Each structure stands twice: as C-alpha cells, then as structure tokens.
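re: ur question from yesterday

yeah so i grabbed the chain u mentioned. its 146 aa long if i counted rite. heres the sequnce exactly as i have it in my notes:
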Amino acid sequence: TNLNEVVLNTSNVNVKQFGKLWTYEVDGVVMAQPLFVSGVSVPGRGVFDVLYVATMNDTLWAFDAGSTAVLWRIDIRNRTQRVDAFKAQSTAIFGGYIGIEGTPVIDLDTGTLYFVARTQETMGDRNIPFFRLYAVDIATGQAKFA
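ran it thru and got these structure tokens back, copy pasting raw so excuse formatting
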C-alpha cells in the first residue's frame, strides 16, 4: 500500500471507471514488460499515447494506447537470410521460441527504444545463436545508428 497516493482512490478506481478496456493481439508469448510513452508524434499519422510490446517471436509492436490500432511493427526474423527466433529445447517453454525476452529500454531524450533480440542463424548445417542490441525510433520503428 502506498499511503502517499493522491490520485487513485475508491471514488475513481471502481468497476464503472477503472478496468480492462481491450486486449491487443500479438504473434507470440510476451515475457518483457510492455512500455508506455505519451505524446509520441508519429509522422503522417498524428500524436499518440503508445504502448510498446515485444514478443518471444522477435517482434516489436507499437500500439495506439487509445484504441487497438497498430502504429508500426518490426520483425527481426528474416527467413530469406536464414535468421529466425531462437528455438527453445522444449516447445513447452515460451511457446517454443526465445526471442525478445528482456524488457526494452526507452531513452526519451533521443526518442530511442533499445532491445536485445536472440536469434538463430543457419550457417551450413549448424544453427548458431546470436544476441544483438537494436535501437529503433519510438515514432517509426526505423533502425537508428545503423
């Protein structure tokens, strides 16, 4: 209990004013904490409160937090270059893949979201695991510093 709380109270946290509004559908298991940034200016679309969600399938989603609309989505996998989410030893663990497991970090000063993705790349007859750090623009999902 936070005895210093001044905004939330029994008059505004109740079944009529507080609760789940909707759900977002993604392509895999979510282990990382979703992140929220208000007032993100998305070029050509407007200003949004954005919810960022990373999946174990190596996908990062940006949703309009005021609706169910997808603002952008990036997928680290590239099957033409033989890059996939890392396959777990057991499909009972994480739905079979271990991709973006850790919670991303957002630098509001630069508008950059950082995350680590685990991939599996096929080289010859071997599947080699890789961990890579990514940096993307919070408004567009475009790679930064590439």
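noticed a couple things. The chain has a mean pLDDT of 87. also Residues 116 and 133 are 5 Å apart (CA to CA).
anyway ttyl
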